[in-house]
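User: I'm putting together notes for a lab meeting next week and I want to include a structural view of one of the chains we've been expressing. I don't have a solved structure, so I'd like a prediction I can at least talk through. The sequence is below, exactly as it appears in our construct file.
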Amino acid sequence: MEITIESHPSTMQIMTHTSRHSLCARLLSVVLLAPLALATSWCVQAQAQTVDDAPVRYSVGYYRDHAFLRQDSNFTVVDTQVEWPEAVDFADLRPLQAALDSLLFAQPMADGQKAYEVYKQRIGRPVTGQLEFLPDDRRFCYVTTTVRLKAYQPRQWICVELRQSVSPGALSPIAKRDLYRILTFDLQQGRVMQTEDLLAVGRFAHLDEESYNIVFEQLDDHRFYGLCKADVDGAWLDGRTQQVGLHIACATDDETFSYERTLPMQSMTRLLTRDAKRLIARKETERKPFFTSMRQTWEGDTIYDKVEQMPAFKGGRDGLTRYLSTIGLFDRSQDTTAHGEAIVSFVVDTKGTVCDVHVVKSVSPIADRHAVAIVKGMPRWEPGLHQGRAVPVRAYQKFEY
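Assistant: Thanks for the context. Below is the predicted structure for the 401-residue chain, given as structure tokens.
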């Protein structure tokens, strides 16, 4: 991966490269690095504080939380990592958000953060301080929740994958649960579609011989001939690559396992439902826009986009160069078709911490995730100042793939 700077001072260009040593050498020779340029140029231009409340076309929030909760003598460890769609092409996402809240947290609120907080309150209160007794391992429960974007076709659909594993001990009052779903949201019609809405019943019977072989080719003979069950429990449409993705759940006498395969849309016509074919073929139509803006406050303070003294990366150019030299290379093999510009929005809070990270322009879910990881991994900045007081400031960073 090579990072260079184009003429735009806030553009970071990321391309495949053969050597990490070469990457570090080029980084050290760069005269102007993107985030630093973003901060310093804003310091010069900012004459008065302003707040950005303009509606956004696209915004996906990237949230992570770890909680240790207690209810009487029962304990729950909650780990949550969510990519939450907040704005997509001015569509009303509330039906999708309500479906996600309902499936994951049994709270159809269309407000992911509020539903999650209510969910945590229902199973316990945060543990603070030292416990007065030694907990019983059998009263522990572990809850892991993941929401990830699988595909996005501008102005047509977005696909979201959700997983939740609830693993209670023998004496925990919480029920065991293993959830896996992929939801496809029709941006034109406002409809939430599940696997059964996209794929015909008796799915594998509709595959031609070549596609059937592609689906099962990665299984060795022991697994293939030992299959007791194989079914598609998740599907998504990737308009960018013109492929249909399948999440396949399998079972043998010895194990259960799952994996993913993708097939060209043109080879899947017998497998797709009429609704899926209509979704793929539909042209964009006029509809009433639904406006959403970025968060306006952070922990009770107004978020500004310009202040008298803008946030600055600690250590200046040298500090940023050292940080960028530790970045993992973008794995092109995970997404060979990722090309374009991703824009990440983030807030530098009053302590200089990078928070409230969103992708506001997407390349692909995998490339977006890489850009977000770079921003989230940044050390603390020098916070922005308004009238001599530290305030939260929103910044934007471009990544070129």
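A couple of points you could mention at the meeting. The two ends are 10 Å apart (CA to CA). The mean pLDDT is 85.

User: Perfect, that's what I needed.
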